[in-house]
Amino acid sequence: MEKYMMALDQGTTSSRCILFDRKGNICSVAQKEFEQHYPKPGWVEHDPMEIWASQVSVLSEAMNKIAALPEQIHAIGITNQRETTIIWDKKTGRPIYPAIVWQCRRTSERIDRLRADGMTQKVREKTGLVPDAYFSATKIEWILDQVPGARKRAQEGELLFGTVDCWLVWKLTGGAVHATDYTNASRTMLFNIHTLEWDKELLEYFNIPQSMLPKVLPSSCIYGKTDPEVTGGAIPIAGIAGDQQAALFGQCCFEPGDVKNTYGTGCFLLMNTGSEPVSSDHGLVTTIAAGSPGEVQYALEGSVFVAGATIQWLRDELWMIRNASETESLCQSVEDTAGSYLVPAFTGLGAPYWNQYARGTFVGLTRGVSRAHFVRAAVESLAYQVHDVLEAMEQDSGYTIEILKADGGASANNFLLQFQADILDAQVDRPGCIETTALGAAYLAGLATGYWKDKEEIRANWQLQRSFIPSIGETKRKQKLKGWKKAIRCALFWANDEEE
Ligand SMILES: Nc1ncnc2c1ncn2[C@@H]1O[C@H](COP(=O)(O)OP(=O)(O)O)[C@@H](O)[C@H]1O
Ligand SMILES: O=P(O)(O)OC[C@H](O)CO
Protein backbone atom coordinates (compact mmCIF):
# COMPACT_ATOMS: atom_id res chain seq x y z
CA MET A 1 0.00 0.00 0.00
CA GLU A 2 1.49 3.36 -1.10
CA LYS A 3 2.32 5.69 1.79
CA TYR A 4 2.34 9.47 1.58
CA MET A 5 3.72 12.32 3.60
CA MET A 6 1.14 15.02 4.26
CA ALA A 7 2.02 18.72 4.46
CA LEU A 8 -0.45 21.24 5.82
CA ASP A 9 0.63 24.65 4.53
CA GLN A 10 -1.35 27.37 6.24
CA GLY A 11 -0.37 30.57 4.35
CA THR A 12 -1.46 34.18 4.64
CA THR A 13 -4.03 34.00 1.89
CA SER A 14 -4.82 30.30 1.58
CA SER A 15 -4.69 26.93 3.28
CA ARG A 16 -3.16 24.07 1.35
CA CYS A 17 -2.71 20.37 1.80
CA ILE A 18 -0.21 18.45 -0.30
CA LEU A 19 0.56 14.73 -0.33
CA PHE A 20 4.12 13.83 -1.35
CA ASP A 21 5.74 10.53 -2.23
CA ARG A 22 9.29 9.43 -1.36
CA LYS A 23 10.76 11.20 -4.39
CA GLY A 24 9.19 14.47 -3.24
CA ASN A 25 6.64 14.36 -6.08
CA ILE A 26 3.26 15.97 -5.51
CA CYS A 27 0.60 13.23 -5.56
CA SER A 28 -2.37 15.34 -4.55
CA VAL A 29 -3.03 18.96 -3.72
CA ALA A 30 -5.99 20.96 -2.47
CA GLN A 31 -6.11 24.66 -1.74
CA LYS A 32 -8.66 27.08 -0.35
CA GLU A 33 -8.45 30.85 -0.08
CA PHE A 34 -9.95 32.48 3.00
CA GLU A 35 -11.07 35.95 3.89
CA GLN A 36 -8.76 38.82 4.79
CA HIS A 37 -10.21 41.39 7.19
CA TYR A 38 -9.02 45.00 7.22
CA PRO A 39 -11.09 46.60 10.03
CA LYS A 40 -9.05 49.84 10.07
CA PRO A 41 -6.25 51.28 7.91
CA GLY A 42 -3.11 49.24 8.56
CA TRP A 43 -4.96 46.53 10.52
CA VAL A 44 -5.12 42.94 9.24
CA GLU A 45 -7.07 40.08 10.84
CA HIS A 46 -8.10 36.49 10.09
CA ASP A 47 -10.82 34.39 11.63
CA PRO A 48 -9.04 31.48 13.42
CA MET A 49 -12.10 29.26 13.00
CA GLU A 50 -12.06 29.92 9.24
CA ILE A 51 -8.36 29.08 9.16
CA TRP A 52 -9.15 25.81 10.91
CA ALA A 53 -12.19 25.00 8.75
CA SER A 54 -10.30 25.71 5.52
CA GLN A 55 -7.35 23.59 6.65
CA VAL A 56 -9.52 20.61 7.54
CA SER A 57 -11.47 20.87 4.32
CA VAL A 58 -8.32 20.81 2.15
CA LEU A 59 -6.96 17.92 4.21
CA SER A 60 -10.02 15.82 3.31
CA GLU A 61 -10.10 17.05 -0.28
CA ALA A 62 -6.44 16.16 -0.92
CA MET A 63 -6.99 12.65 0.48
CA ASN A 64 -10.26 12.14 -1.40
CA LYS A 65 -8.73 13.18 -4.72
CA ILE A 66 -6.51 10.09 -4.72
CA ALA A 67 -8.71 7.99 -2.41
CA ALA A 68 -5.95 7.90 0.23
CA LEU A 69 -6.88 6.24 3.53
CA PRO A 70 -5.73 7.63 6.91
CA GLU A 71 -3.41 4.61 7.33
CA GLN A 72 -1.66 5.65 4.08
CA ILE A 73 -0.59 8.94 5.62
CA HIS A 74 2.77 8.18 7.18
CA ALA A 75 2.87 11.47 9.12
CA ILE A 76 1.88 15.13 8.94
CA GLY A 77 4.19 18.14 8.71
CA ILE A 78 2.75 21.57 9.46
CA THR A 79 4.04 24.85 8.08
CA ASN A 80 2.45 28.22 8.55
CA GLN A 81 2.32 31.98 8.15
CA ARG A 82 4.46 33.08 11.07
CA GLU A 83 3.99 35.66 13.86
CA THR A 84 0.18 35.73 13.41
CA THR A 85 -1.24 35.65 16.92
CA ILE A 86 -4.20 33.65 18.26
CA ILE A 87 -5.42 33.52 21.85
CA TRP A 88 -8.11 31.05 22.82
CA ASP A 89 -10.00 29.73 25.82
CA LYS A 90 -8.46 26.50 27.05
CA LYS A 91 -11.82 24.97 28.05
CA THR A 92 -14.03 25.91 25.10
CA GLY A 93 -11.32 26.03 22.44
CA ARG A 94 -12.88 29.30 21.17
CA PRO A 95 -10.61 32.20 20.19
CA ILE A 96 -11.23 35.31 22.31
CA TYR A 97 -10.32 37.68 19.47
CA PRO A 98 -9.60 37.40 15.71
CA ALA A 99 -6.08 36.35 14.71
CA ILE A 100 -3.88 39.44 14.47
CA VAL A 101 -1.95 38.89 11.27
CA TRP A 102 1.80 39.42 10.87
CA GLN A 103 1.14 42.32 8.50
CA CYS A 104 -0.96 44.23 11.06
CA ARG A 105 0.43 47.62 12.10
CA ARG A 106 -1.81 48.36 15.09
CA THR A 107 1.04 48.13 17.58
CA SER A 108 3.49 50.42 15.76
CA GLU A 109 3.29 53.07 18.47
CA ARG A 110 3.90 50.47 21.14
CA ILE A 111 7.17 49.68 19.37
CA ASP A 112 8.08 53.38 19.49
CA ARG A 113 7.60 53.21 23.27
CA LEU A 114 9.72 50.08 23.48
CA ARG A 115 12.50 51.96 21.72
CA ALA A 116 12.06 54.94 24.04
CA ASP A 117 12.31 52.51 26.98
CA GLY A 118 15.80 51.62 25.73
CA MET A 119 14.82 48.00 25.01
CA THR A 120 16.00 47.77 21.39
CA GLN A 121 19.42 46.32 22.05
CA LYS A 122 18.14 43.88 24.64
CA VAL A 123 15.49 42.57 22.25
CA ARG A 124 18.07 42.24 19.49
CA GLU A 125 20.51 40.35 21.68
CA LYS A 126 18.01 37.95 23.17
CA THR A 127 15.66 37.29 20.26
CA GLY A 128 17.76 38.18 17.20
CA LEU A 129 14.91 40.43 16.00
CA VAL A 130 14.60 44.09 15.12
CA PRO A 131 11.73 45.36 17.33
CA ASP A 132 8.67 45.75 15.11
CA ALA A 133 4.89 45.39 15.19
CA TYR A 134 5.45 42.47 12.77
CA PHE A 135 6.36 40.04 15.58
CA SER A 136 3.88 38.42 18.01
CA ALA A 137 4.83 40.00 21.36
CA THR A 138 3.02 43.34 21.01
CA LYS A 139 0.04 41.60 19.38
CA ILE A 140 -0.38 39.34 22.43
CA GLU A 141 0.02 42.30 24.74
CA TRP A 142 -2.58 44.25 22.73
CA ILE A 143 -5.19 41.47 23.03
CA LEU A 144 -4.53 41.09 26.76
CA ASP A 145 -4.94 44.86 27.19
CA GLN A 146 -7.96 45.36 24.95
CA VAL A 147 -10.20 42.33 25.45
CA PRO A 148 -12.08 42.87 28.73
CA GLY A 149 -10.84 40.53 31.45
CA ALA A 150 -8.30 38.84 29.19
CA ARG A 151 -5.17 39.51 31.23
CA LYS A 152 -6.78 38.26 34.43
CA ARG A 153 -8.03 35.14 32.68
CA ALA A 154 -4.57 34.58 31.22
CA GLN A 155 -3.00 34.96 34.68
CA GLU A 156 -5.46 32.41 36.04
CA GLY A 157 -4.40 29.92 33.35
CA GLU A 158 -7.64 30.02 31.37
CA LEU A 159 -6.19 31.29 28.08
CA LEU A 160 -3.65 29.89 25.64
CA PHE A 161 -1.54 31.67 23.05
CA GLY A 162 -0.29 30.15 19.85
CA THR A 163 0.99 31.00 16.41
CA VAL A 164 -0.99 29.32 13.63
CA ASP A 165 0.96 26.03 13.78
CA CYS A 166 0.22 25.76 17.48
CA TRP A 167 -3.48 26.51 16.93
CA LEU A 168 -3.66 23.78 14.28
CA VAL A 169 -1.86 21.24 16.46
CA TRP A 170 -4.24 22.02 19.32
CA LYS A 171 -7.27 21.55 17.06
CA LEU A 172 -5.91 18.49 15.26
CA THR A 173 -5.14 16.72 18.54
CA GLY A 174 -8.54 17.57 20.01
CA GLY A 175 -6.97 19.97 22.53
CA ALA A 176 -4.43 17.43 23.81
CA VAL A 177 -1.22 19.18 22.68
CA HIS A 178 -0.23 22.81 23.19
CA ALA A 179 3.14 23.06 21.46
CA THR A 180 5.10 24.95 18.85
CA ASP A 181 8.57 24.58 17.35
CA TYR A 182 11.79 26.61 17.65
CA THR A 183 11.33 28.37 14.31
CA ASN A 184 7.90 29.74 15.19
CA ALA A 185 8.89 30.58 18.75
CA SER A 186 11.82 32.57 17.38
CA ARG A 187 9.34 34.93 15.66
CA THR A 188 7.43 35.94 18.79
CA MET A 189 10.03 38.40 20.18
CA LEU A 190 9.68 36.52 23.48
CA PHE A 191 11.99 33.58 22.83
CA ASN A 192 15.68 33.59 23.66
CA ILE A 193 17.33 32.09 20.60
CA HIS A 194 20.53 31.30 22.51
CA THR A 195 19.10 29.48 25.54
CA LEU A 196 16.11 28.12 23.55
CA GLU A 197 13.69 29.20 26.29
CA TRP A 198 10.94 31.76 26.75
CA ASP A 199 12.65 34.86 28.08
CA LYS A 200 11.41 35.80 31.56
CA GLU A 201 12.56 39.41 31.35
CA LEU A 202 10.72 40.04 28.08
CA LEU A 203 7.60 38.29 29.37
CA GLU A 204 7.67 40.59 32.37
CA TYR A 205 8.22 43.67 30.19
CA PHE A 206 5.14 42.85 28.08
CA ASN A 207 3.21 41.56 31.10
CA ILE A 208 2.52 38.20 29.43
CA PRO A 209 2.01 35.20 31.76
CA GLN A 210 4.25 32.28 30.83
CA SER A 211 1.43 29.82 31.56
CA MET A 212 -0.31 30.80 28.33
CA LEU A 213 2.71 29.99 26.15
CA PRO A 214 3.18 26.64 24.41
CA LYS A 215 5.89 24.06 24.99
CA VAL A 216 8.68 24.56 22.42
CA LEU A 217 10.09 21.53 20.60
CA PRO A 218 12.50 20.88 17.70
CA SER A 219 11.02 21.18 14.20
CA SER A 220 11.50 17.53 13.42
CA CYS A 221 9.98 15.41 16.19
CA ILE A 222 6.69 13.74 17.12
CA TYR A 223 4.29 16.26 18.61
CA GLY A 224 1.35 13.92 19.10
CA LYS A 225 -1.31 12.11 17.11
CA THR A 226 -4.36 13.55 15.43
CA ASP A 227 -7.80 12.98 16.87
CA PRO A 228 -9.42 10.20 14.74
CA GLU A 229 -12.67 12.19 14.87
CA VAL A 230 -10.92 14.83 12.76
CA THR A 231 -8.76 12.81 10.39
CA GLY A 232 -10.51 9.43 10.30
CA GLY A 233 -7.55 7.76 12.02
CA ALA A 234 -4.76 8.74 14.40
CA ILE A 235 -1.90 10.17 12.32
CA PRO A 236 1.40 11.35 13.86
CA ILE A 237 2.17 15.07 13.61
CA ALA A 238 5.94 14.88 13.25
CA GLY A 239 7.14 18.21 11.90
CA ILE A 240 6.48 21.91 12.36
CA ALA A 241 8.25 24.91 10.88
CA GLY A 242 7.39 28.48 10.03
CA ASP A 243 6.83 28.67 6.28
CA GLN A 244 10.06 30.50 5.46
CA GLN A 245 12.24 28.13 7.45
CA ALA A 246 10.33 25.20 5.91
CA ALA A 247 11.09 26.56 2.43
CA LEU A 248 14.79 26.88 3.33
CA PHE A 249 14.72 23.21 4.32
CA GLY A 250 12.65 22.20 1.28
CA GLN A 251 15.19 23.91 -0.98
CA CYS A 252 17.89 21.76 0.65
CA CYS A 253 19.76 24.84 1.92
CA PHE A 254 21.50 22.71 4.52
CA GLU A 255 24.96 24.28 4.39
CA PRO A 256 26.12 27.67 5.73
CA GLY A 257 25.88 30.21 2.91
CA ASP A 258 22.97 28.49 1.11
CA VAL A 259 20.22 31.00 0.27
CA LYS A 260 16.64 30.88 -0.93
CA ASN A 261 14.03 33.52 -1.63
CA THR A 262 10.31 32.79 -1.48
CA TYR A 263 8.08 34.99 -3.61
CA GLY A 264 4.67 34.74 -1.92
CA THR A 265 2.44 37.39 -0.34
CA GLY A 266 5.71 38.83 0.96
CA CYS A 267 9.28 37.94 -0.02
CA PHE A 268 11.51 36.20 2.45
CA LEU A 269 15.21 35.76 1.81
CA LEU A 270 16.92 33.35 4.20
CA MET A 271 20.52 32.23 4.47
CA ASN A 272 21.58 29.22 6.47
CA THR A 273 24.38 30.32 8.84
CA GLY A 274 25.00 26.95 10.50
CA SER A 275 25.12 26.19 14.21
CA GLU A 276 26.13 29.72 15.26
CA PRO A 277 23.76 32.70 15.17
CA VAL A 278 25.13 35.58 13.07
CA SER A 279 23.96 39.04 14.09
CA SER A 280 23.25 41.72 11.52
CA ASP A 281 24.46 45.32 11.20
CA HIS A 282 22.34 45.94 8.11
CA GLY A 283 18.74 45.44 9.16
CA LEU A 284 18.39 41.67 8.90
CA VAL A 285 17.09 39.46 11.67
CA THR A 286 18.68 36.38 13.18
CA THR A 287 16.30 33.49 13.41
CA ILE A 288 16.24 29.78 14.08
CA ALA A 289 16.27 27.53 11.01
CA ALA A 290 14.60 24.14 10.86
CA GLY A 291 17.09 21.38 11.52
CA SER A 292 16.97 17.63 11.28
CA PRO A 293 16.38 15.76 14.56
CA GLY A 294 18.83 16.73 17.28
CA GLU A 295 20.40 19.81 15.67
CA VAL A 296 19.77 23.54 15.97
CA GLN A 297 20.69 25.72 13.04
CA TYR A 298 20.39 29.47 12.58
CA ALA A 299 19.57 31.70 9.64
CA LEU A 300 19.81 35.33 8.64
CA GLU A 301 16.56 36.63 7.25
CA GLY A 302 15.39 39.63 5.29
CA SER A 303 11.59 40.01 5.32
CA VAL A 304 9.81 42.03 2.63
CA PHE A 305 6.23 42.60 3.75
CA VAL A 306 4.51 43.21 0.43
CA ALA A 307 5.48 41.32 -2.72
CA GLY A 308 2.92 39.04 -4.44
CA ALA A 309 0.30 41.03 -2.51
CA THR A 310 1.07 43.88 -4.93
CA ILE A 311 -0.06 41.66 -7.78
CA GLN A 312 -3.27 40.80 -5.90
CA TRP A 313 -3.82 44.53 -5.40
CA LEU A 314 -3.49 45.11 -9.16
CA ARG A 315 -6.11 42.40 -9.65
CA ASP A 316 -8.58 43.08 -6.82
CA GLU A 317 -8.41 46.82 -6.18
CA LEU A 318 -7.13 48.40 -9.40
CA TRP A 319 -8.64 45.85 -11.80
CA MET A 320 -5.59 46.16 -14.03
CA ILE A 321 -5.28 42.41 -14.54
CA ARG A 322 -7.66 39.46 -14.35
CA ASN A 323 -5.14 37.01 -12.95
CA ALA A 324 -1.60 37.03 -11.62
CA SER A 325 -0.05 35.04 -14.47
CA GLU A 326 -1.18 37.69 -16.98
CA THR A 327 1.50 40.00 -15.57
CA GLU A 328 4.27 38.05 -17.30
CA SER A 329 3.20 38.83 -20.87
CA LEU A 330 2.18 42.38 -19.95
CA CYS A 331 5.66 43.06 -18.55
CA GLN A 332 7.27 41.58 -21.63
CA SER A 333 5.08 43.73 -23.91
CA VAL A 334 7.05 46.88 -23.00
CA GLU A 335 10.77 47.66 -23.03
CA ASP A 336 10.83 49.07 -19.51
CA THR A 337 8.68 51.00 -17.04
CA ALA A 338 9.07 54.33 -18.89
CA GLY A 339 11.05 55.64 -15.91
CA SER A 340 8.37 54.90 -13.30
CA TYR A 341 8.78 53.04 -9.99
CA LEU A 342 6.24 51.56 -7.60
CA VAL A 343 7.21 51.12 -3.95
CA PRO A 344 4.51 48.90 -2.41
CA ALA A 345 5.16 49.93 1.20
CA PHE A 346 1.50 49.33 2.06
CA THR A 347 2.30 48.21 5.61
CA GLY A 348 5.56 50.06 6.13
CA LEU A 349 8.89 48.69 4.97
CA GLY A 350 10.59 45.64 6.48
CA ALA A 351 14.21 44.70 5.90
CA PRO A 352 16.57 46.39 5.46
CA TYR A 353 14.75 49.69 6.13
CA TRP A 354 12.46 48.81 9.08
CA ASN A 355 10.39 51.92 8.63
CA GLN A 356 6.94 51.44 10.17
CA TYR A 357 5.71 54.72 8.74
CA ALA A 358 6.71 54.21 5.10
CA ARG A 359 3.73 54.03 2.73
CA GLY A 360 3.28 53.04 -0.89
CA THR A 361 4.26 55.43 -3.65
CA PHE A 362 4.39 55.55 -7.44
CA VAL A 363 6.95 57.98 -8.87
CA GLY A 364 8.27 59.08 -12.23
CA LEU A 365 4.85 59.40 -13.85
CA THR A 366 4.65 60.92 -17.30
CA ARG A 367 1.79 60.94 -19.80
CA GLY A 368 3.43 58.02 -21.60
CA VAL A 369 3.05 55.58 -18.69
CA SER A 370 0.59 52.87 -19.70
CA ARG A 371 -1.10 50.00 -17.87
CA ALA A 372 1.71 47.67 -19.00
CA HIS A 373 4.35 50.05 -17.63
CA PHE A 374 2.48 50.26 -14.32
CA VAL A 375 2.18 46.49 -14.06
CA ARG A 376 5.84 46.09 -14.95
CA ALA A 377 6.82 48.59 -12.24
CA ALA A 378 4.76 46.51 -9.78
CA VAL A 379 6.47 43.25 -10.75
CA GLU A 380 9.92 44.88 -10.79
CA SER A 381 9.30 46.16 -7.24
CA LEU A 382 9.49 42.57 -5.98
CA ALA A 383 12.94 42.15 -7.50
CA TYR A 384 14.21 45.51 -6.24
CA GLN A 385 13.12 44.76 -2.70
CA VAL A 386 14.88 41.40 -2.84
CA HIS A 387 17.97 43.15 -4.19
CA ASP A 388 18.12 45.46 -1.16
CA VAL A 389 17.83 42.56 1.23
CA LEU A 390 20.41 40.46 -0.60
CA GLU A 391 22.87 43.34 -0.56
CA ALA A 392 22.48 43.57 3.22
CA MET A 393 22.89 39.82 3.53
CA GLU A 394 26.16 39.79 1.63
CA GLN A 395 27.48 42.54 3.90
CA ASP A 396 26.42 40.78 7.10
CA SER A 397 27.40 37.24 6.22
CA GLY A 398 30.60 37.89 4.27
CA TYR A 399 29.37 35.53 1.53
CA THR A 400 29.00 36.58 -2.10
CA ILE A 401 25.72 35.16 -3.29
CA GLU A 402 26.23 33.73 -6.75
CA ILE A 403 23.12 31.57 -6.94
CA LEU A 404 19.73 32.38 -5.46
CA LYS A 405 17.20 29.55 -5.22
CA ALA A 406 13.68 30.85 -5.91
CA ASP A 407 10.29 29.45 -4.94
CA GLY A 408 6.74 30.52 -3.96
CA GLY A 409 3.73 31.38 -6.11
CA ALA A 410 5.20 34.39 -7.92
CA SER A 411 8.40 32.51 -8.85
CA ALA A 412 6.33 30.99 -11.67
CA ASN A 413 6.77 34.37 -13.41
CA ASN A 414 9.68 34.08 -15.89
CA PHE A 415 9.89 37.82 -16.43
CA LEU A 416 10.26 38.39 -12.69
CA LEU A 417 13.06 35.86 -12.25
CA GLN A 418 14.95 37.12 -15.31
CA PHE A 419 14.67 40.70 -14.04
CA GLN A 420 15.78 39.47 -10.62
CA ALA A 421 18.92 37.87 -12.10
CA ASP A 422 19.61 41.08 -14.05
CA ILE A 423 19.22 43.42 -11.11
CA LEU A 424 21.23 41.19 -8.75
CA ASP A 425 23.84 40.29 -11.32
CA ALA A 426 23.51 36.74 -9.96
CA GLN A 427 22.05 33.48 -11.21
CA VAL A 428 18.52 32.62 -10.09
CA ASP A 429 17.57 28.92 -10.01
CA ARG A 430 14.00 27.66 -9.96
CA PRO A 431 13.49 24.04 -8.84
CA GLY A 432 11.05 21.59 -10.41
CA CYS A 433 8.86 21.83 -7.32
CA ILE A 434 8.13 25.42 -6.27
CA GLU A 435 5.98 24.15 -3.38
CA THR A 436 9.13 23.98 -1.30
CA THR A 437 7.42 25.30 1.82
CA ALA A 438 5.11 22.30 1.96
CA LEU A 439 7.91 19.99 0.86
CA GLY A 440 10.13 21.26 3.69
CA ALA A 441 7.41 20.50 6.25
CA ALA A 442 6.96 17.04 4.76
CA TYR A 443 10.72 16.41 4.92
CA LEU A 444 10.85 17.42 8.60
CA ALA A 445 8.01 15.06 9.47
CA GLY A 446 9.47 12.32 7.28
CA LEU A 447 12.91 12.53 8.91
CA ALA A 448 11.37 12.21 12.37
CA THR A 449 9.44 9.09 11.38
CA GLY A 450 11.93 7.33 9.12
CA TYR A 451 10.06 7.96 5.85
CA TRP A 452 13.31 9.54 4.65
CA LYS A 453 16.62 8.29 6.02
CA ASP A 454 18.69 11.46 6.06
CA LYS A 455 19.38 14.78 4.38
CA GLU A 456 21.37 13.10 1.61
CA GLU A 457 18.32 11.14 0.51
CA ILE A 458 16.33 14.37 0.47
CA ARG A 459 18.99 16.29 -1.41
CA ALA A 460 18.78 13.76 -4.24
CA ASN A 461 15.16 14.83 -4.80
CA TRP A 462 16.03 18.48 -5.60
CA GLN A 463 15.83 19.14 -9.33
CA LEU A 464 16.55 22.25 -11.33
CA GLN A 465 13.74 23.38 -13.60
CA ARG A 466 15.35 26.53 -15.03
CA SER A 467 18.30 28.90 -14.42
CA PHE A 468 18.02 32.62 -15.11
CA ILE A 469 21.36 34.18 -16.08
CA PRO A 470 22.11 37.93 -15.77
CA SER A 471 21.80 39.63 -19.15
CA ILE A 472 22.12 43.39 -18.68
CA GLY A 473 25.24 45.52 -18.41
CA GLU A 474 26.53 47.13 -15.23
CA THR A 475 25.74 50.71 -16.31
CA LYS A 476 22.08 49.92 -16.98
CA ARG A 477 21.81 47.96 -13.75
CA LYS A 478 23.25 50.80 -11.68
CA GLN A 479 21.00 53.33 -13.40
CA LYS A 480 17.86 51.31 -12.62
CA LEU A 481 18.92 50.86 -8.99
CA LYS A 482 19.60 54.57 -8.63
CA GLY A 483 16.00 55.33 -9.59
CA TRP A 484 14.74 52.71 -7.16
CA LYS A 485 16.71 54.20 -4.25
CA LYS A 486 15.20 57.61 -5.03
CA ALA A 487 11.72 56.07 -5.02
CA ILE A 488 12.41 54.43 -1.65
CA ARG A 489 13.38 57.79 -0.17
CA CYS A 490 9.96 59.15 -1.22
CA ALA A 491 8.16 56.34 0.60
CA LEU A 492 9.99 56.54 3.95
CA PHE A 493 8.24 58.22 6.94
CA TRP A 494 5.14 59.14 4.86
CA ALA A 495 2.68 58.25 7.65
CA ASN A 496 4.61 59.94 10.45
CA ASP A 497 3.60 63.59 10.69
CA GLU A 498 6.42 64.35 13.07
CA GLU A 499 9.18 63.34 10.67
CA GLU A 500 10.42 65.64 7.94
N1 LIG B 1 2.62 34.35 -12.30
C1 LIG B 1 2.65 35.20 -11.26
N2 LIG B 1 3.25 36.39 -11.37
C2 LIG B 1 3.32 37.25 -10.32
N3 LIG B 1 2.79 36.98 -9.12
C3 LIG B 1 2.17 35.81 -8.95
C4 LIG B 1 2.07 34.85 -10.00
N4 LIG B 1 1.40 33.77 -9.52
C5 LIG B 1 1.10 34.05 -8.23
N5 LIG B 1 1.56 35.27 -7.88
C6 LIG B 1 1.45 35.91 -6.56
O1 LIG B 1 2.01 35.02 -5.62
C7 LIG B 1 1.26 35.02 -4.39
C8 LIG B 1 0.83 33.60 -4.05
O2 LIG B 1 1.97 32.86 -3.74
P1 LIG B 1 1.94 31.83 -2.52
O3 LIG B 1 3.32 31.26 -2.45
O4 LIG B 1 0.81 30.91 -2.73
O5 LIG B 1 1.65 32.85 -1.34
P2 LIG B 1 1.26 32.70 0.22
O6 LIG B 1 1.87 31.41 0.69
O7 LIG B 1 1.92 33.91 0.81
O8 LIG B 1 -0.23 32.76 0.35
C9 LIG B 1 0.06 35.91 -4.63
O9 LIG B 1 0.29 37.12 -3.94
C10 LIG B 1 0.01 36.13 -6.14
O10 LIG B 1 -0.42 37.43 -6.44
O1 LIG C 1 2.13 33.12 4.19
P1 LIG C 1 3.32 33.68 3.51
O2 LIG C 1 3.95 32.75 2.55
O3 LIG C 1 3.04 35.02 2.93
O4 LIG C 1 4.45 33.93 4.63
C1 LIG C 1 4.25 34.82 5.65
C2 LIG C 1 5.43 34.85 6.58
O5 LIG C 1 5.59 33.68 7.30
C3 LIG C 1 5.36 36.02 7.50
O6 LIG C 1 6.50 36.10 8.30
From TrEMBL:
Q: Per the UniProt record, which EC number(s) apply here? A: 2.7.1.30
PANTHER family, alphabetically? Answer: GLYCEROL KINASE (PTHR10196:SF69), SUGAR KINASE (PTHR10196)
The cross-references to InterPro entries, in alphabetical order and at most eight, read: ATPase_NBD, Carb_kinase_FGGY, Carb_kinase_FGGY_CS, FGGY_C, FGGY_N, Glycerol_kin
Summarizing the function annotation, the protein's role is: Key enzyme in the regulation of glycerol uptake and metabolism. Catalyzes the phosphorylation of glycerol to yield sn-glycerol 3-phosphate.
Residues reported in the UniProt entry to bind glycerol: 82-83, 134, 243-244
Characterize the regulation of its activity.
Answer: Activated by phosphorylation and inhibited by fructose 1,6-bisphosphate (FBP).
Note the NCBIfam families from the entry: glycerol_kin (TIGR01311), PRK00047.1 (NF000756)
Specify the protein name. Glycerol kinase
Similarity comment text for this entry: Belongs to the FGGY kinase family.
GO MF, one example: ATP binding
What residues does the Carbohydrate kinase FGGY C-terminal domain cover?
260-448
Transmembrane keyword on record: no
Pathway listed for it is:
Polyol metabolism; glycerol degradation via glycerol kinase pathway; sn-glycerol 3-phosphate from glycerol: step 1/1
GO BP, sorted A to Z: glycerol catabolic process; glycerol-3-phosphate metabolic process
Q: Which Pfam families match?
A: FGGY_C, FGGY_N
Per UniProt, where does ADP bind? 12, 16, 265, 308, 409, 413
Gene name?
A: glpK
Q: How does it assemble?
A: Homotetramer and homodimer (in equilibrium).
Q: Which UniProt keywords apply?
A: ATP-binding, Glycerol metabolism, Kinase, Nucleotide-binding, Transferase
